[in-house]
Amino acid sequence: MKTWIFILMGCLALGCNNSASKKVIKENVAQAEAKQAAQTDLPVMTFEKSEHDFGSINEGDVVETAFAFTNTGNTDLTILDARGSCGCTVPEYPKNTPIAPGETGEIKVIFDSANKPGNQLKTVTLTTNTARGRDILRIKTMVTPDPVKAQQRQNMQNRTNN
Questions:
Q1: Are 122 and 86 contacting, i.e. CB atoms less than 8 angstroms apart?
Q2: I need a surface site. Which of 2, 5, 18, 81 has the fewest CB within 10 A?
Q3: Distances 71 to 47, 51, 98, 135, 141 between C-alpha atoms, Å
Q4: What is the dihedral of CA 99, 42, 69, 109, to 10 degrees?
Q5: CA distances (Å), origin 49, targets 30, 72, 107
Q6: Residue 84 and residue 90: Cα distance in Å, rounded?
Q7: Which contiguous run of DSSP H or E holds residue 116?
Q8: What's the pLDDT at 127?
Q9: What is the per-residue pLDDT across 95-128, written as a single tens digit (0 to 9) for each?
Q10: Which parts of the chain have pLDDT scores under 50?
Q11: Are 137 and 127 contacting, i.e. CB atoms less than 8 angstroms apart?
């Protein structure tokens, strides 16, 4: 008799655990489906390119490029902020302007090479209402030093070292 009681209690315990497990699994599946549905309702920012190489430029040149994009998502895209990695890299963008699904726009990036000799790699970080929330655009260039400014920098360095 005692054996049957233990067997019956064991079956009840397993039965309760099994239905509790099924409930947790169903809740997890429902949460995953809700998350996926929410993400399909978000805008998607798709760029033609996310990097631009200006090649070789002369120190003091101000150059610019545009990064074209399309909202390939299902709701309006909004660019909340765009910041250059330094003051020499300035983005121009449609701030807080809704961009409908299928519509295009552009981010213009201006780079001022004054006092920036050598290899340069700069970024622009975009803050958006997409699932990722951030996108990064990159520009690069080789800045040929201005001979007069190069001599001035050398003279300053020599004074500092003496």
A1: yes
A2: 2
A3: 9, 18, 10, 13, 29
A4: 80
A5: 37, 15, 11
A6: 6
A7: none
A8: 98
A9: 999 999 999 999 999 999 999 999 999 999 999 9
A10: 37
A11: no
Q: Is the dihedral of CA 131, 124, 51, 118 positive or negative?
A: negative
Assigned token pair, 17: 């655990």
pLDDT reported for residue 159: 82
Count CA atoms within 13 Å of residue 125 on its CB side: 7
Whose structure tokens read 């981010």? 107
Token pair 């340069």 is at which residue?
120
Cα distance between residue 92 and residue 83, in whole Å: 9
**DSSP characters for 33-101?**
HHHHHHHHTS--EEES-SEEEEEEEETT-EEEEEEEEEE-SSS-B-EEEEEESSTTEEEE--BT--B-T
**Closest C-alpha to 60, from 110, 109, 113:** 113
Any residues with CB less than 8 A from the CB of 91 and at least 6 apart, and which? Answer: 82, 83, 84, 107, 108, 109, 110, 124, 126, 137
At residue 150, the pLDDT reads 83
**Confidence (pTM):** 0.72
